[in-house]
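--- STAGE predict ---
source: upstream dedup step, 1 unique chain passed
mode: sequence only
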Amino acid sequence: MASIKLILRTHQQDQAGHCPLYIRVIKDRKAKFISVGVKLKESEWDEAKQRVKKNYPNSARMNASIAQKIADAEGQVADLERKVKTVSAKKLKEAIKGKEVPNFFEYSYKYCTRIRGSVSVSTYKNYVLYLEKFQNWVGTKDVFFDDITVTLLMDYMAYMGNELKNGATTQRYSIMILAIMFKQAIKEDIIPEYMYPISKLTLKKDTGKRLFLNKEQIDAMINYDAGEGTKGGIYRDMFIFSIYAGGLRFSDALEIQNKHFIEEEQRIKKVIRKTGRMHQFKIGKVALDIIRKYQKEKPQPDDFIFPIVTNKDLFLKNDEYRYEITEKANKAANFQIQRITKALEFPIHVSFHLSRHSFATNALNNGMRIEHVSKLMDHQDIRTTQVYAKIMGEELDKAVDNYIY
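--- STAGE serialize ---
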């Protein structure tokens, strides 16, 4: 025999002190929870009497509504238990909810498994990581699509901001992963479009300023004795190479092979990892000298320029291995670059990705047209490149403030 009770989930209290009210169904010592669609303060709920207290506005009407929901739930449970001798708590929940709505996490994890071979390893891992993040907050896998309401997502965003200290961009990304699952379920006619809650949310991005190194700082890094042939020296050279090679991302710099370098044209030609597009551009003397420094006497076409990857065959054939090696190497590169820039007393935190920003801002500062900078950075939309033009405008304003009285 199943038992039904109202439970105020105080551990999901929002910033205003309100907690969601749920119907709890217990069958064979397994509990399932169904949202009532009501949020109350602890002081407004009488646990013993299972009623809303009189200090809640329109308490009589609310109690009548809740009592009707409990009566309907008990009726559904009784009907199903009469028809079926052995019935699970999950089936009871589905009966109470009416038309069966898919479990959000069951669907989402299956979807991730289904697309695993058709997306990048990083995309797959991010999907799973952010689903697990949401699941850990909810506290259970027993969540159906219609349980995920605007209010629930707002509470989740508040938790990310207040407890995890996530910025606006991270919060936005976390919600957008959930949105992908909703949109795919709608596309497959698994849930109706009206269940999509994300459109009612306001998702913002952080307005953090993009930092970069100026010419003097770049020259200081070039002249720094990082140790010939050491990891510090190699990663420093990769960083400088990226600055003078169109702001190549770390993964693309790591994967440059001899066949990607066209000696007679002094040109790099390779497929960019992030976009999947073939990209080619001419490199200048600094980048050219770095490539020649690392080229072997009798190079093979598929040999990597920079001696970081030790198992070339496995790296090229196994996506999981390539992802893991790239992640580890990126962390090592950031460690070495930060060690060098701290020794040089740079006033900012420097990671490998700053090479990309440094290329763009210095190229614009030296008079390169923004269309050319955009092309070299393989931006699909010039509006992305215009962020760097804005930085240069701010730097110009600062120069006026400092030197013109």
